[in-house]
Amino acid sequence: MAKILAITNQKGGVGKTTTSVNLAASLAATKRRVLLVELDPQGNATMGSGVDKMGLARTVYHVLLEQVDIGEVRAAAPAGKYDLVPANRELAGAEVELVDLPYREKRLKNALAALAEDYEYVLIDCPPALNLLTINGLCAADAVMIPMQCEYYALEGLTDLVQTIKRVRSNLNPRLEIDGLLRTMFDPRNALAQQVSEQLQRHFGDKVYRTVIPRNVRLAEAPSFGLPVLYHDKGSKGAQAYLALAGEMLRRAPG
Ligand SMILES: Nc1ncnc2c1ncn2[C@@H]1O[C@H](COP(=O)(O)OP(=O)(O)OP(=O)(O)O)[C@@H](O)[C@H]1O
Ligand SMILES: [Mg+2]
Questions:
Q1: What residues does ligand 1 touch, defined as CB less than 6 Å away?
Q2: From edge to edge, which strands make up the β-sheet containing 143-149?
Q3: For ligand 1, atom 30, which residue shows the shortest CA distance?
Q4: If you average pLDDT over every residue of the chain, what do you get?
Q5: pTM score > 0.85 for this model?
Q6: DSSP character for 214?
Q7: Quick check: 83 and 73 in contact, CB under 8 A?
């Protein structure tokens, strides 16, 4: 059975997509069977995986509206050794169109049930909002990975996210856990970043991954080539950090 991880933070630009794409590629590089599902109308994980989001007839949008089976939408990512369920801006309509439909929060969960045997890891890249798309991600997941920048407002946003996770756990998905908090774009020379990082560790203890993702220009430029950083510059600090994160996850949950 696949371990299903929602990569979530309602704050924008914290590294959700960078983490989704590069963790998918890193887990796949260790021979794990990995599926990446994009739940963001921005389509960044799709583009970053080497798929042109504009040219797609079928995406996760059609899966959520039950117009097509997820198996027909999933395809091998050209740039990594993982599979992708892509998204593009059409997905923005799903929010409104799902509202009056039955089991609207569990559409992704139900769709993924058909594929659970095919993968060891399913990663879900969520949009920067606590909306129905993100709720679909949280309902489908076993656990949440929370990428965050160690800056002043980060902890405030975390309170809302933890509340949402608790609400989903009591109403929709009792097995949902926090897998961990991931410090992204980290600059060890920044005193505030150090402080926030220490605060995080005090509050969340071993829920904070030991691996830290440094700020690294290779990570930022890889998507413009439609590549995970592993295939752009394997020796870069960014590539090594995501390989280390994959290693940390595998050690925590061998399999
Ligand atoms: N470790 C890093 N070092 C340098 N740049 C990074 C790093 N992580 C992410 N970035 C850059 O920061 C920007 C935001 O990252 P990303 O798109 O992964 O965040 P996001 O949380 O998915 O954003 P959104 O909320 O819009 O979906 C991107 O331009 C990305 O290339
Ligand atoms: Mg994103």
A1: 12-18, 40, 42, 44, 128, 184-185, 213, 215-216, 219-220, 238
A2: 75-76, 83-85, 34-38, 121-125, 3-7, 143-149, 177-186, 208-214
A3: 220
A4: 95
A5: yes
A6: E
A7: no
Instruction: State which amino acid sits at residue 129.
Output: A
Mean pLDDT per 10-residue segment, the chain (255 residues): 95 97 98 97 98 96 97 93 97 94 97 94 97 97 97 87 95 97 96 95 94 98 97 98 97 71
118 CA distance to ligand 2 middle (Å): 25
Q: By C-alpha distance, which of 85, 56, 51 is closest to 71?
A: 85
CA distances to 30, 110, 134, 152, 237 from 185, in Å = 24, 34, 23, 14, 11
* Contact by Cβ (8 Å): 88, 46: yes
Closest ligand (CA of 184): 1
Count of other CB atoms within 10 angstroms of residue 171: 11
Ligand 1, from 7, 17, 149: best to mutate by most atoms within 8 Å of Cβ?
Answer: 17
CB 36 within 8 A of CB 85: yes
Test site for ligand 1: of 10, 18, 161, most ligand atoms within 8 A of the Cβ:
18
- The CA-based angle 59-175-65, given to 5 degrees, is 20
Residue 45 C-alpha to ligand 2 middle, in angstroms?
Answer: 7
